[in-house]
Amino acid sequence: MTRSIWKGPFIDNYLLKKIQKNNTKNKFIKIWSRRSVILSEFIGFKFQVYNGQRFINITVTEDMVGHKFGEFSKTRKQVIHKT
Q1: DSSP category for residue 36
Q2: Neighbouring-strand partners of residue 56
Q3: pTM of the predicted model as reported, rounded to 2 decimal places
Q4: Which family is annotated (predicted)?
Q5: Strand-pair partners of 57
Q6: Domain hosting residue 53, numbered range
């Protein structure tokens, strides 16, 4: 079920504070919030999103705006069977 329009997108407060504090786009910002929505203000920033075992490197582009961080950090490995 989607979030209602009048509430707006969900973003953790600590994530907004990290973006405002970190003006350089060259450093990675470590986050654990997979449920936060990617805003247009995040374009160009580099994030390390925790997937439960390790951090996945993500650089935000224009196509990612409106999606959640969890969509870009997979939690399961793909099984490859030997033949």
Answers
A1: S
A2: 49
A3: 0.83
A4: Belongs to the universal ribosomal protein uS19 family.
A5: 48
A6: 13-72
